[in-house]
Prior knowledge:
By secondary structure, this protein is of the alpha+beta class. Helices cover about 50% and strands about 15% of the residues. Helix 6 (about 160-175) runs parallel beside helix 12, helix 10 (about 250-260) packs across helix 12 and helix 12 runs antiparallel to helix 13 (about 315-335).
Amino acid sequence: MTHRELPPFIQFLLEPGAYPHEAEEIKLVQTHISYVLLAGNFVYKIKKPVDFGFLNFTTLEQRKHFCSEELLLNRRLCPDLYLGLETITREGEGYALSGQGEPVEYCVKMARMPEERMMGKVMIRGELTGEMLDRIVEILVPFYARAEGGEEIRQFGTAEAVSINVLENFVQTEAFVGCDSLGRTQYETISRYAEKFLAREDLFNDRIAAGKIRDCHGDLYSANICLADQVYIYDCIEFNQRFRYCDTASDVAFLAMDLDFHGLRNLSDYFIQRFCEKSQDDGLLTMLNFYKCYRAYVRGKIGLFTAHAPEVDEATKQNCLIQAGKYFQLAESYAAAG
Length: 338
């Protein structure tokens, strides 16, 4: 996508003069739901006006609301990282950050973390260690222990509630079945496995009785973890409670799956072992393969969504399709093992 095809206010934010601070080089990163601008020592995250059913950012007020939710929820783990809500205003023929004119968009302002310490890059360099995973576990165990887990939230742990999240993925990807990324046999193998596991209501009820359904992170994988002077676990799900109210097994399964995806199965097993020890939750192992499969399929689905978004460039599209195919292969392997 060229700069001309971007929304005018994004074009404005690509200029160093748009910011009240030094920002010599500005980098734009796009996901299927966000524009993320890396500008100097800060990050500005803007929600796209999209409606995927499971999220709806189509109105300005909705985007403002979910920016506020993002700040509130992520400050549970990263209070110093999430700085505040910024307004993009219209000023005559142009725009301003927190100007006096009409608000045209809202964004979350964050402190910028060192890119070389992002967990994904640490993994690619082969530098991830068990000690780093221990630091993550030391944060997660007390986080889940103090997270809300009342009657309303517990209901999201039933087989019926979980099935809504899991089975909608198959509906949302059905139109893509038969493409290079997702074959018919893969789709049927994974969906059959999920449906059979969801029939085991007793397993889900055991997790509810054990108090393991909590207001979790919802998007716990390497892209949202920075291993700097301290561990930052950021960018939780703010747009849909049913993705965040979940079994702690589902949350940690995402990171375990991510480690598997990057060929780090031994570290994945180590992470789960240490988490089970520290949280005294051996029952998690009963659910692990199922939730790994679910999480891998979700990542594949997001890859397909991003690849087919009209605003992404061809290189991004092809990379997303390749990555989606790998995630669907991993999901299939979990389904076969299950």
